[in-house]
Design a protein that fits this description.
alpha+beta
Amino acid sequence: TSKESAEQILKPHLPTLLSCILDGWSQSQTLPLRHKFEPRTKSGIIRDLIVDEVKTKFDAVPGARPIQLKDYFFLRIDNLHIRFKKFDMNRLPRNYPTKQAVELEDQTLDLPGINNHVFLNAGYVTNSFESKIIGAYVTCQIGKSNAWEIALGGAENGFIVLPTQQSFDDG
């Protein structure tokens, strides 16, 4: 699916996707003892809060359906299946490279009842202190990079939007 095609399908839903991410994040900031959590635990809690927001906000939206398949939660809109993740600075999710994770990245994962599908990631990027969101995106990952990205908001949402093509290397 091209970026233009996905934007056409997702356009009416982009504000709600952003709201789910921001509201899930905000809820996580009120958790007691959150400063004691490891980064992986924080990411998992935030993801669960975002998924709860998605289930609530998309429950009665025509053409959108929250679904749970195997160990995956998706928001299905048309043939797009959206997962919710924390992104690194390259707007890629961090996944342990299991067979299923690699197949999902490569768009080859076979799940029952899903045909002619495209897997997308909706997620957020934090600052280096993990104290605030600096960007939120919907991405189409193919292998180890994104084929395309859609920014969910920008300065009007208090984000410092990172350039889409910018790459950050650790070395």
